[in-house]
């Protein structure tokens, strides 16, 4: 694993020693279920083969230093509160803070990070970083943190310390996914089911298309969507929009005066149903039929939730025109990546079609690659 070698080399350069161990956590692709997580609904992500690796060694109690291959800067800090460490190192300081806030004695550490998860692409590079560091500190400190509790700690680091109002999808995928499976997660109960997701056996593949229109969660748009959903739930008298079913949707929408809020609610309620429909199709072995569900999800994100941009819309349209069974944006929106369900062996022709469509519009060229479902966070051997 080249990225592991990079992490070790960064550790040696910064600290003049060998790390005690290596821990890796993946980015993720969300197959279906966008913005449903913070509405206590359902999601269906799978882990990417691309990972972030943390090379770590013990340090004196109450002392943490982190460096990264992405910057020459090394950041040292002691026990901090939200807002005291900023920038990229806030994700590491946030994990230390969240573990301590949960009552754990967090071991001091020297950390070096390297990653092959594309930054700002909607593939959750931040959750991969958080999950790798969290797993390392838990293992190194012998902390009693069950696997099903770990995503909430990482989410709290991002929500409270970093200030990004994300749901629990990304951290759950990075920590709890299994190889060859998609993670069916109930974001209210945190119950999971590992859904077989072996596309090669069906003669299919997932093509990820990085639109190269980067997104950023720590801004007003993501937060505005969340606020609108929470306000709508309060008006409708439910704990979260997950409690509105598709059969109840028309009646619920009639009780909302604001058209924008109606469209936001319609996306969440129908997106939850699309997750359930996709899971049912995968359980039944009707994998090819999920393509239409994916495409319907994109239309909902584009028209009702209004989180797509021109580059991702063009990528979806071009992929489908080139023969993809379905395509949709994946991630929080406002840029990032598209996934396309394609016939195995058609990645090159689909990529060419998207590149041509981008060139015709003067967009920065996309980056495309096929992916398979990988494992979640774990210690790795050198």
TrEMBL record:
Residues 91-175 form the GHMP kinase N-terminal domain. Keywords: ATP-binding, Carbohydrate metabolism, Galactose metabolism, Kinase, Nucleotide-binding, Transferase. Its EC number is 2.7.1.6. InterPro entries: Galactokinase, Galactokinase_CS, GalKase_N, GHMP_kinase_C_dom, GHMP_kinase_C_sf, GHMP_kinase_N_dom, GHMP_knse_ATP-bd_CS, Mevalonate/galactokinase. Pfam families: GalKase_gal_bdg, GHMP_kinases_C, GHMP_kinases_N. Residues 280-358 form the GHMP kinase C-terminal domain. Residues 9-58 form the Galactokinase N-terminal domain. Signal peptide: none annotated. Belongs to the GHMP kinase family. GalK subfamily. PANTHER family: GALACTOKINASE-RELATED, MEVALONATE KINASE/GALACTOKINASE. This is Galactokinase. It comes from Paractinoplanes deccanensis.
């Amino acid at each position: 694993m080249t990225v592991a070698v990079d992490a070790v080399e960064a550790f040696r350069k910064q600290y003049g020693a060998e790390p005690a161990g290596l821990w890796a956590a993946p980015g993720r692709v969300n197959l279906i279920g966008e913005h449903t997580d913070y509405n206590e609904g359902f999601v269906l992500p799978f882990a990417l083969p691309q990972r972030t690796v943390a090379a770590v060694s013990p340090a004196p109690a109450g002392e943490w230093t982190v460096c990264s291959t992405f910057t020459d800067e090394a950041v040292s800090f002691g026990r901090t509160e939200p807002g005291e460490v900023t920038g990229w190192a806030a994700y590491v300081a946030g994990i230390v803070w969240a573990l301590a806030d949960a009552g754990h004695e967090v071991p001091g550490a020297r950390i070096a990070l390297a990653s092959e998860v594309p930054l700002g692409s909607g593939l959750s590079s931040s959750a991969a970083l958080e999950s790798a560091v969290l797993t390392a500190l838990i293992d190194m400190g012998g902390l009693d943190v069950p696997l099903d509790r770990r995503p909430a700690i990482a989410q709290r680091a991002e929500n409270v310390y970093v200030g990004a109002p994300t749901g629990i999808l990304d951290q759950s995928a990075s920590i709890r996914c299994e190889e060859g499976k998609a993670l069916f997660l109930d974001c209210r109960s945190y119950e999971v089911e590992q859904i077989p997701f072996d596309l090669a056996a069906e003669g299919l593949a997932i093509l990820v298309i990085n639109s190269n229109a980067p997104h950023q969660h720590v801004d007003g748009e993501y937060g505005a969507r969340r606020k609108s959903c929470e306000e709508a739930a309060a008006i409708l008298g439910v704990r979260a929009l997950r409690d509105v079913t598709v059969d109840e949707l028309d009646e619920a929408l009639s009780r909302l005066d604001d058209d924008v809020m109606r469209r936001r609610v319609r996306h969440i309620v129908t997106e939850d149903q699309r997750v359930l429909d996709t899971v049912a199709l995968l359980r039944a072995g009707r994998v090819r039929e999920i393509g239409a569900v994916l495409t319907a999800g994109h239309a909902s994100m584009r028209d009702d939730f209004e989180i797509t941009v021109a580059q991702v819309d063009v990528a979806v349209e071009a992929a489908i025109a080139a023969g993809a069974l379905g395509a949709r944006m994946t991630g929080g929106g406002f840029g990032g990546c598209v996934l396309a369900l394609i016939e195995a062996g058609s990645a090159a022709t689909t990529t060419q079609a998207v590149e041509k469509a981008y060139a015709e519009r003067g967009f920065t060229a996309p980056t495309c690659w096929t992916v398979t479902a990988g494992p979640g966070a774990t210690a790795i051997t050198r």
